[in-house]
Amino acid sequence: MGEVTPYLLYEDVAVALGWLAEAYGFTETLRFTEDDGRVSHAEMSTGGSGVVMLGQPGGDYRNPAHSGHHNGFLQVVVDDVDAHLGRARSAGATILSEPADKPYGIRTYGSLDLEGHRWDFATELHAVEPEDWGATTSQRA
């Protein structure tokens, strides 16, 4: 099996590239620009081996900010979630949840980007073994 690479659609990919770099610290690695100046495809490194692809949507696309609905989110592991939150907040990210320690061994916060896509950023605090989860949780495969 290979890695999962999310592909997000943005109404203005060029603006999203700049904003994601400023707010979340991602690095642009690839950009395809059409003859009319519109960015139709781009890729960003999230740090480590993580990659996010960005594209220009078709006519019936509605980003989460316009539709008012979310059907998922992306989680990115960072070195220091509290410092990362400061960067995101300074760039205007909508903070959905302040950093909190979770029983499954991470510290995480939630945010929305400029077009309403949900991003959660996390720092691993400690490894959690399946037997530590208790009888009411499912075991990891």
CATH architecture: Roll
Sheet-strand content, in percent, reads 35-45%
Radius of gyration: 17 Å
Which range best describes the helical content: under 10%, 10-25%, 25-40%, 40-55%, 55-70% or over 70%? Answer: 10-25%
How are the SSEs placed, and which strands pair?
Blueprint lengths: L6 E3 L3 H12 L2 E7 L5 E9 L2 E6 L8 H4 L6 E4 L3 H10 L3 E8 L4 E7 L5 E7 L17
Parallel strand pairs: 1-4, 5-8
Antiparallel strand pairs: 2-3, 3-4, 6-7, 7-8
Report on the structure:
The protein is of the alpha/beta class. It has a single domain, classed as 2,3-Dihydroxybiphenyl 1,2-Dioxygenase, domain 1, CATH 3.10.180. It has three helices and eight strands. It has a four-stranded mixed beta sheet with strand order 1-4-3-2, with helices on one face. A hairpin with a 5-residue loop joins strand 7 and strand 8. It is globular. The model has no long low-confidence stretch (mean pLDDT 87).
